[in-house]
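Holo model, pyridoxal-5'-phosphate. Inputs:
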Amino acid sequence: MELHEYRSLFPSVANHVYLNHAACSPLPAPTVQATQSLLEEQHLYGCRYSNGWMGLVDKIRDTAARFIGASPEEVALTRNTSHGLLLVANGLPWRSGDNLIVPHGEFTANVYPWLTLRGRGVEVRFAPMRDNRILPEDIEALMDSRTRLVAISAVQFGSGFRCDLHAIAAICRARGVLLCVDGIQALGQVPFNVNDPQVDFLSAGGPKWLMAPLGTGIFYCRKGLIEQLAPVFMGWRSTLDSENYYDYNMPWHPTARRFEEATLNIPGLLGLQASMNLLTEVGLERIRAHLLRLTDALADGLRARGYVITTPMDSESERSGIVCFKHPVRKAAEIHAQLTAANVIVSLRGDVIRVSPHFYNTLEEIESLLRALG
Ligand SMILES: Cc1ncc(COP(=O)(O)O)c(C=O)c1O
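Output:
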């Protein structure tokens, strides 16, 4: 199917020019259907679905694992990005005097879980952001013998900068430092495989580029590390046999499934599964190429109109589907209001406008944005 043919799955295209997937994606039709199927089941029959819901969850987890190149034993279904980051922050065996590294400018979801560790004597070191770039050498310069972990977003929310995860992973590995990736701004728009580059932990919520319902997410934990995360957030479904309600001495489940502590948002997760299947069908390489085309056209048009692009776009490897811009004189809030009035949906982030198209958006829609700017 050609990309534009998928537009029929997005009735939202009739409502506005939506270029805001770094905030939250409209749901594709198959995703809504998948979610609704379970809502209707519960509506009509109550808990009948409980007979088979474990099976559904296993299949969703398999789909999520395939999507990121992991084994299903290394994946837990979650409710948001923070859920996975908090499992790592609170689960690792920190010792007073340890430190970890987080870049400046990270979204707060990837800051607060680490800051709370200060109470346990862990130092949080902030790597500088240089012209919206985070450089592997700056991260390495902050490392010493007590550095335990680097926590970084694969794609930055405030600029769209895509860090050199290969270089950062190589530095971490050489130094015996763990790498924890916030993947919510990357998964669904750039191909991602947890083994290339090798990351230790990955957490991503579903509602942005993965086009999934709110309250869904996935967490990846490298196999050898599952046992290293302390059981700080364990519940009845963390056990080896969660259907055995009368044994209080069960061991924890040996796989990452132990991090799915209790009843899940299965309607939402069925939607996540449908969206991942759709994105796989469309093809992550094709999505990436299309987003480069759209953002090229956008950046050219903006520059021609006197706007300043704040997103690093010098090399393809540092680019994502996000482009941020501002005007040398006009306030970003004013530009944002102008675009909103023209029914073009983008985000205002600090002093920049953030534009984030997805695979079903067209060059005509980019033109609409440019026209709306006058
Ligand atoms: C980089 C990044 N991480 C995390 C989040 C959201 O975190 P959560 O999924 O925990 O709500 C966002 C945006 O909302 C984000 O841009």
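The pocket of pyridoxal-5'-phosphate is lined by residues 80-82, 107, 109-110, 153, 157, 182, 184-185, 205 (CB under 6 Å). The chain has two domains: 3-19+284-373, 31-280.
Archived with the compound record.
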